[in-house]
Each structure stands twice: as C-alpha cells, then as structure tokens.
Amino acid sequence: MIRFLRNRFFRTLHDDESGSATVEFVIVFPVFITMMTMSVELGLVTMRHTLVERGMDMAVRDLRLGTGRFAGEQTQIHDQIKAAVCENALLLADCETQLRLEMRSADLFSFTSLDSGIECTDASEPAKPLKDDSFVPGQANELMLLRACYRFNPIFPTELLGNLVVDDTGQGAIVSMTAFVQEP
Description:
This protein is of the alpha+beta class. The protein contains four helices and four strands.
C-alpha cells in the first residue's frame, strides 16, 4: 500500500507541468543582465581608447612633420599638443582636464622606455603642475616617446572588466603610447 501511494504521488509530481520557471529566471536573468551591461561598458572603454589613439596619431603627425603648429616654450607646446589631441579625439568628455601627456626623448642605441609608473590626473588631488623632466620637446632626428593617460567615469561598476585601472575615486584610466622621430 505504501509503495502504491508513493509511486502515485511521485507520478503526479512528475507529470504535472503547471507552474512557472521562476527558479531558472532568478538564476539566469542576473547573469544575462550583468553580461549585457559589462559588454556595453567594455564597448565604451574601447571607443574611448580608440579616440585617444586617433587624437594622438593626428597630433603626432603634425608634430612630426614640423608644420609650425607647435611653437613656443615647453609648457606652451605641452598645452598645444594636449589641445590638438583633444580636438582630434572627438566625443571625449572633459578632455582638457582629464588628459595628461608625458613626452621624453629616447636613445636609439641604448633604448629605455618610459617609466612604468603612469602619471594620470587624479580627481581627489589638486592639479599637478607639469614637471620639467616629464615633457621634453625633441630636436631634429630624435626619437620621441609620447604617452597619454585619460581618466573617465565608468557608467557601471568595473569589477568584472578585468585589468581596467581604477583609482580610489572610481575613475578608470586609458593609457596610450606612441613613438615618432622628429623630422629635420
């Protein structure tokens, strides 16, 4: 008798198809939404990085060819190059204050790259003045290294984006570097 009742009870549960898929929805929906939001954020980071790269390429082209666009003292040239990068990098929010440039010459025979410590703007500190050794305009036929660091405010939390650099204030950093030779 107990076997009969037990089989009948399990058979009715097994054959019953009424109800909803709440368990599957609760498990799958957050994962799906997280993947969608992170793909949107990653797309925006990629777009910003591409725009910074484009801005640097266009500004370095003018600088390398010596069109006369960049002239003056060291701080004036820095500001002019920064303005050119921001002008060519369309759609970057608050580019003039969030972009920091670093340019140094490099020896072709004993090559040393820029320091691994990247100096970016920081919203929690006052603006850092331009150091004398962090931006050195080059001479003719000299190899120059130019690095730009752009800070931005991410839309979504960035813990799931991997190795995106985020500071204490929650800003992300995009670092781009290029090398060029000054034309005579």
